[in-house]
Amino acid sequence: MKTDILIxxxxxxxxxxxxxxxxxxxxxxxxxxxKEGAVxxxxxxxxxxxxxxxxYYKPGSLKADNCLRGYHMLIEFCKAEGIEYDVCGKxxxxxxxxxxSGLEALYQRGILNGLSGLRFLSQAEITEYEPHCxxxxxxxxxxxxxxxxxxxxxxxxNKITSHPNGQIVTSxxxxxxxxxxxxxxxxxxxxxxxxxxxxxxAGLYCDKxxxxxxxxxxxxxxxxxxxxxxxxxxxxxxVKNLIYPVPDANFPFLGVHFTRRISGVIEAxxxxxxxxxxxxxKKSDFLCSEFWDSIRFGGFRKVALKYWKMGLGxxxxxxxxxxxxxxxxxxxxxxxxxxxxxAGSGVRAQxxxxxxxxxxxxxxxxxxxxxxxxxxxxxxxTSGLSIGLELAERTLxxxx
Length: 400
Fold this sequence. Notes:
The chain is of the alpha+beta class. 33% of the residues lie in helices and 27% in strands. The chain contains eleven helices and 20 strands. The strands form three sheets. Strands 5, 6, 7, 13, 14, 15, 16, 17 and 18 form a nine-stranded mixed β-sheet that branches. A hairpin with a 2-residue loop joins strand 19 and strand 20 (370-375). The protein is globular, with a radius of gyration of 21 Å. It starts with a strand and ends with a helix.
């Protein structure tokens, strides 16, 4: 099969890219290849459902710029497609004096990123937003919201497949990629696809796809599993919307927090533990080849050495419900271990470079005929339509 543009991966980034390509140029032929039997089965379909405001990200970074633009694009898309969402706001809470400087820095970063309506909260004012939450100071972030990203992905997929030049092929695992002067050829078990531009949005396997295409990489994807509990329905009153701790500036994860899902369920988590395989959603999931692939990578060993104390704490919470509960009680003391029900989990595709740095920003690498998205963790879902627009513009430029 011949096409103008071939996209690998039908998560929200791949779907958004195809949607934006067909919107910008309805005459281009776009095919998405997805190894699973349906779209959005991995990071997109297993995240927290939060519409991020952009308060966390370095001003001027790809994360900040795309989150801020993507936030508005996502809400407009949900309105147009009739997808339920709720801009309910959230509070970020400092529970000890040592966190106050981090809370102030977070507030200032939000101002630099153009957020409006941010408000410091006193100890008493925190309870006006969340009656069962305790803290010495907080920040209210009005722009934060919630949505079901799987519904967003399905709406994007429907728009693509209903377009005469759009196609999504599922159960199409990539077996080989061969670059040439006119783009590249991608082989699956049953088909050969020839495209002028190939866009790699393969998420947890984006580095493997890039290497298959002949790219020389200075990074590797390291999978981190995030595990959740949900509150029993009769205890859902303990959390109204979203409650977050002050994040550790040296660690690229936000810490366990509370999130009201659009369904009304209250989720608690996630932790962040090294997964023993790239799609390791359960503690028991283990794939020897992928485990050793991570362990052999020098950058990961440097990360493990640097963050071993934090890592042990995360693993301890993973296997100890009392420890997980204790972490949650810092924000909501009335939570009891018996209030928590095991819920789902997700796996984050975190890029790590050879120097042992967990890459903090979105990362895109280009070569002749190829565009590779090599780091797109949170807030990629919020940013999806914006990242898709960026990738679509780069792709059309390559297409000429």
